[in-house]
Specification:
With 202 residues, the protein is of the alpha+beta class. Helices cover 28% and strands 27% of the residues. Helix 2 runs parallel beside helix 5.
């Protein structure tokens, strides 16, 4: 049995995410780890065809993720778009041998019992993780945003593969280059104030 409590020790480094990979793992192993972790957002646990990834996000990773999320919510409020935030919703399909937990995800509109998010957001801060797009593609998540090195890239699902897109379809009209430019503010509240002011001028 690979499920051991010490696998969930958090790496307290403020700079780097910490990854543990377990190869040759069964679906039962994956579900046992989810059970052991319980209802928490970290560590995040992914499963891809027999490999389990346990990722403890750094403080920097979480700060970027949270600020992007807050700015997305500001944009939605300014444009009267109904949304529900689902955080690190555990998405999994046993038949596809895949499971993933996004950094953040959203459902747009009024949906009583959504089966999947309309949008998953990922922060690529430290290299070495599993290919989340390979996981999401079989789960059927229609759109994924990847933040990396100051930019947000959009991937849209076409069949069972993702294609890089110049614009979001989940939030039509959002300027992601503009949004990303506010991530350098010293606090999340400052980023929100400045972004809101910029949207008001448009």
């Amino acid at each position: 049995m690979i499920a051991r409590a010490e696998l969930f020790d958090r790496d307290q480094s403020p700079q780097e995410d910490h990854f543990v990979h377990l190869h040759g793992a069964t679906w039962a192993d994956y579900e046992r780890l989810l059970e052991l972790r319980g209802d928490h957002s970290a560590p995040r646990i992914q499963y891809l065809e027999g490999t389990i990834e346990i990722m403890s996000p750094s403080g920097t990773h979480e700060s970027i993720k949270s600020t992007i999320s807050r700015l997305v919510e500001v944009w939605c409020l300014e444009h009267a778009i109904e949304f529900s935030a689902y955080g690190s919703w555990t998405l999994k399909k046993k038949r596809k041998k895949r499971g993933a937990e996004p950094d953040e995800c959203y459902v747009f509109g009024r949906v009583a019992a959504p089966k999947l998010p309309d949008l998953a957001i990922e922060v690529s801060w430290t290299s070495g993780g599993l290919d989340k797009l390979e996981i999401y593609s079989k789960l059927g998540v229609p759109e994924v945003w990847y933040w990396s090195a100051g930019r947000i890239e959009v991937y849209r699902l076409r069949g069972e593969r993702y294609v890089k897109s110049a614009a979001s379809m989940a939030l039509k009209g959002i300027d992601l280059e503009q949004l990303a430019s506010f991530l350098d503010r010293p606090t999340t509240s400052q980023a929100i104030r400045d972004y809101r002011a910029a949207l008001a001028r448009m």
